[in-house]
Amino acid sequence: MAGRRTRSEIVAAADELFYRMGFEPTSFADIAEKVNISRGNFYHHFKTKDEILNEVIQKRAADRRTMLDAWEQEESTPERRIARFIDILAMNCDKIRLHGCPIGTLTGELAKLDHPAREEATALFTLFRNWLSRQFAQLVPHKEADRLAMELLARSQGAATLYNAFRDDNFLRREIAAMKAWLAGISAGRKSAHD
Amino acid sequence: MAGRRTRSEIVAAADELFYRMGFEPTSFADIAEKVNISRGNFYHHFKTKDEILNEVIQKRAADRRTMLDAWEQEESTPERRIARFIDILAMNCDKIRLHGCPIGTLTGELAKLDHPAREEATALFTLFRNWLSRQFAQLVPHKEADRLAMELLARSQGAATLYNAFRDDNFLRREIAAMKAWLAGISAGRKSAHD
DNA sequence: GTCTATAGATAGATAGAC
DNA sequence: GTCTATCTATCTATAGAC
Questions:
Q1: Each residue's pLDDT tens digit, A143-154
Q2: pTM of this prediction?
Q3: Engineering a disulfide at B110: which of A45, B85, B87, B115 sits with its beta carbon 3.0 to 4.6 angstroms away?
Q4: What is the 8-class DSSP label of residue B191?
Q5: CA A103 – C1' D12 distance (Å)?
Q6: Do B187 and B79 contact (CB within 8 A), yes or no?
Q7: A72 — alpha (psi -120 to 50), left (phi > 0) or beta?
């Protein structure tokens, strides 16, 4: 029973290290050191590195679900909920500056590794995609909602990537403002500019 | 003198492998196998892995400069030149689908590794940024040109990241069409929609 | 459930014959 | 300029004492 605690500590440590250094460059030794257990003990909890990866992805999914549920509770309109999504960039800018988006960089790395868990990582994007789509469906015809969700997801990914590269605070601020203006245009006009 | 050929073959092989598998996961053995030389001979040409990385980045920069110069020659208007940039996504979609954007994924990986060459990799983005900025400066007031260059760069990065994750051809087509519509709006109105 | 010790593979890198 | 052989470090993973 006490083992659950150590196990979840390992997953939490791996989550952060995979984000900061990447999955492949992170070794068992790195994780063990962070949790303060020996490498040998490690294998009592996890048989393979991929097993940890899977649990890290599931933890990330659970964390995001909790966050999205909270936004749904805390904000009364779809505009405000979508605005909360855009604000992730500002809230986490210190980390994004150094390590990029946790979801975007993981899916990218797993794609290059041709890793079996790639699709599970993509499901983290799907979580946001579907949540955003449900919000947009309250602002525009249902048929357009997913398109807008993907558009916003793409724009936030682009902003994260270039902010990580150039580390220009003004650029990030501008991108956030532009996304909010775009959102305001949709919720006011209830129709997107093009198409 | 013949050594130059082997050296450039090594760089070309490393360029492709770093793109396909990532810098860190690519081993000397991988590169040596691809070039058909022994691991030992390898060190006659390059002392360290970082040395190869630097040369790969310089090669990528040279390749992009050549490409941008060609676009400048081949296209007569800034709109058409910028459109060529947007078309990269369609031209390279097979590779982007599997491995993402070569520049975006490299800068992201080097950021996580906290690698000394990170800034050199970012310079690859700067190459496009400045080129696009010069094109936009012919369409809008100079003060706005860099802002539009970054906006387009970000959008193309976002499209590449999500295409790599979801592998949805319709999404990519839509993003390309949206960028072209955005570009048409700028070159027609000579003023961006927001701000 | 935690540890030490260690296996087996592979990494980056070197030495020296040809 | 290319090779084989090898070094050292580190990786994932296992065995077995406590």
A1: 999 999 999 999
A2: 0.96
A3: B115
A4: S
A5: 25
A6: yes
A7: alpha
CATH number for the domain spanning A181: value is 1.10.357.10
**pLDDT per residue as tens digits for the range A49-97:** 999 999 999 999 999 999 999 999 999 999 999 999 999 999 999 999 9
B129 and B90 fall within a common domain = yes
Please tell me whether any atom of strand D lies within 7 Å of the Cβ of B47. no
**Domain CATH for B41:** 1.10.10.60
Those nucleotides of strand D lying less than 7 Å from any protein Cβ are 1-6, 10-16
What b/e sequence results for A119-129 when a residue is b if at least 16 CB atoms lie within 10 Å of its CB, and e otherwise?
A: ebbbbbbebbb
Q: Do the beta carbons of residue A79 and residue A187 sit within 8 Å?
A: yes
Estimate in Å the CA A41 to C1' C2 gap, whole number: 6
Number of domains in chain B: 2
The whole-angstrom distance between A38's CA and the closest CA on chain B is 24
Confidence band, pLDDT 50/70/90 cuts, at residue B192: very low
Mutation to test the A interface, candidates B95, B112, B132, most A Cβ within 10 Å: B112
User: Both tokens of residue A150?
Assistant: 């993907």
Question: Residue A41 belongs to what domain range?
Answer: 1-47
Q: Which of B99, B107, B159 sits opposite A112 (nearest CB)?
A: B99
